[in-house]
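Predicting holo structure, pyridoxal-5'-phosphate bound.
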Amino acid sequence: MIKIPVNAPLLNGNEKKYLNKCISDSFVSSSGPFVKKFEKKFAKFIGKKYAVSVSNGTVALQIAYECLNIKKKDEVILPSFTIISCILPIIKSGGVPVLVDSNIDDWNINVNEIKKKITTKTKCIIVPHLYGLPKEIDKIKKICKKKKIKIIEDTAEAIGLEYKGKMCGSYGDLSTFSFYANKHITTGEGGMICTDNKSYYDKCRYLRNLCFNNQRRFKHYDIGYNARFTNIQSALGLAQLEQINKFIKKKISIGEFYNKKIKANKSFVKPILEKNETKNIYWVYGLLIKNKKLKLEKVRDLFKKNGIETRNFFWPLHLQPILNKMGYFKNQKFKNAEYLGKKGFYIPSGLGLKINQQRIIVKFINKFFD
Ligand SMILES: Cc1ncc(COP(=O)(O)O)c(C=O)c1O
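Done. C-alpha cells:
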C-alpha cells in the first residue's frame, strides 16, 4: 500500500476562506470575481501584461498555438523529451513537428540542436522548462528574433522559477502554465496563458469561450473551445499564489535534503544543482538509474512495495506508439531523450511532503541501493 504519495499538494493558506466566499456568494462558474483577480495577479507575478485562465495546461498550449496562425506544412521545433501536450496542437493542425534532442545534464532542449533544425519554414519553437531548471530562453529568443520565429514558452513546471532576473514565462511571445495538483501552485486542474500582445490576448479569450461574439449570442464564426476556468478554481489559485515564495523555498529544501542524504549513493544520477547561473527548484526530484543491473520497473516496484510512490519520466515523442502509427518520426533517433525516458523516474517531492517521510525515503534508498 502507498503510504507516501509522489505529490501531495499543500492547501493551508487562504484556500478555505476564499472557497467559502465562492459558496456564500453563489459564484461557482467562470463568471465570478476571483477569475479576474487571479488573472491580474498572475500576470503581474510573471511580468506580462495579460493573463487568460483556462481549464488546463494542455488546452493552454492548444489555444496559444492557434493565436500564431501557423499553416499546414509550417515547421515547429520542440524537444522529443517532453509531455505529449506540446505536440498535440501541431499534429492536429497539420503543422510539421521537428524534434530536437535534450541535454544530458539539465534534461532540457539543446540550443545548438535547435539552431541546426531551423529552416525558412520554421514558424515557432515550443520551449518547455523541465523538472526544475530553466532553458536558456534568452539565447533562443535572440535566435528567434532574427529569424522572425515565435516562441511558446511552456512554463507548466517552472512557475516561480527566475532566470536572469526575470520570471520564466516572461520571455515567450506566449507562455503557458498548468495548475495540475503536482505543480508549484494548484487549482486541481487548470492553466494560464500569458502574453504582452493585445491581439493574442483577445484571441485567447475568444477561443477559450467557444468563440462567442458580441453581435449575436449563439451565432458563431469560428471554432473554439470551452476551456473556461471557474471562480472556485480561481479562489484556490489566488490563495496558492499568495504562498508561491514559501512554496519555492520548500521545494528547494526538499531537493537539498535529498541531495545531502543520498549524495554518496552510486546507483543513481541525481539532478544537477544549478545551470546557467540558476539554482534548481526541483519541480520534482528526478533520478536516473546508473547501475546497469537495475531495471527501471523493478526499481519502481521495490519503492512501491515499501509504500513509496514514484513516477516515470516522460516517454520521448519520437517513440510514442500513436505518433509512429500516424507515420511520424520513422527512423529518427534522439539518444539523450531515449536515455532519459528509459532510465528516469522521480520520487516524492510534493509540497505536502513531511520531513519524517523524506527520512523514510532516504533510509530506504540507502538500504536497498548502494
Ligand atoms: C511541461 C508540461 N507542459 C504541459 C503540461 C500539461 O498540463 P496539464 O496537465 O494541466 O494539461 C504538463 C503537465 O504536467 C507539463 O509538465
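The longest helix spans residues 244-261.
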